[in-house]
Amino acid sequence: MRILDLAVALSSLAAFVVAAPTSPGKTQLPDGMPSPSPDQLKLIEQNAHGTLPNGPPPPVISSDGIVNLQLIAFNELFEVAFFNELITNITNKVEGYDIDDEEDHVKALDALKAILAQEELHALRANDALEHFKVNPIQPCQYKFPVDDFESAIALAATFTDVVLGTLQDVVERFALGRDVDLAREIASVIGQEGEQQGWFRVLQGKIPSELPFLTTSDLNFAFTAIQGFVVPGSCPNINEIPLRTFEGLEILTPAGPLSQNITIQFEDPNNEAEHLLWLTYINQQNLPIVEPIRVVSRNGKEVKAEALFPFDDNEMNGLTIAAVTKTDGPFSDASSVAKWTLAGPGLIIVN
Known about the structure:
Elements: H1 3-12, H2 38-48, H3 63-91, H4 102-132, H5 150-177, H6 181-204, H7 220-228, E1 250-252, E2 261-268, E3 279-284, E4 290-293, E5 295-300, E6 303-310, H8 312-315, E7 319-326, H9 335-340, E8 342-351
């Protein structure tokens, strides 16, 4: 499965193939997560090739800082479930996950076991900080993943890691604005770790390790919405405690290539917003958001199909592009200003 196909799958977040279904009530997390014993934590740290930071969280935190920690924990628990399932499928040589060359099989497992343990520590650190600040830690959900072989799993991992790298930029900025200086430094170290694993995912797909000179930015609300596409509805014990928006779904029906072209999109419109002018707004790299008018093609109940230009040639829109149907044409100064006016999204487009 090509990365563009995975981007479409992730943007639509529908019709998933779950490689290893989990019975209701059974956790998909390993190592006693999200509350490992001291012995389990020691093993996680050994597998991660490092430890949890041994300094305490700062004595105070901003309100936006709390939301940052909740979103990080919500995302990291999903990633732990994903990588645990991937490792299980490779280890058991499930059809589609059987790596023929034994040396490659061992190398892939070694790398993924380290990534899994590192994501476990990220989740623990965020939830430990929430508890420190007298806020309920985020509990894991039940998850579903749109992959059925090793190639598509790595492509999907690269796609959501792209989104994570953009979202953590927003996290650092919110920490900085809230004067949560120590936490901003810690997250900067996590961005480096995520970038290292993303380079490996890209090499596995035959791509150059580094995607862009300035990675595409994002907004917490887009990530919060995207992650929920991997969640079994109604399975998250305390998702309602995370004060972020969930947008209507947006599907990119036309995989965009490295050229300017009209693309077809589909989105949910429960309040008949499409009766007024709408725009498709693109977030790419560190550039100002690009806005293109939407032409409605058809409507079936709440579902709208429409077209808009993907203006690649004039903007060198390589790497990850986050698309959103917006209720205004801006002008938008950044990803957060786009999120404030978003009806449907995020739609994910990856070129290169």
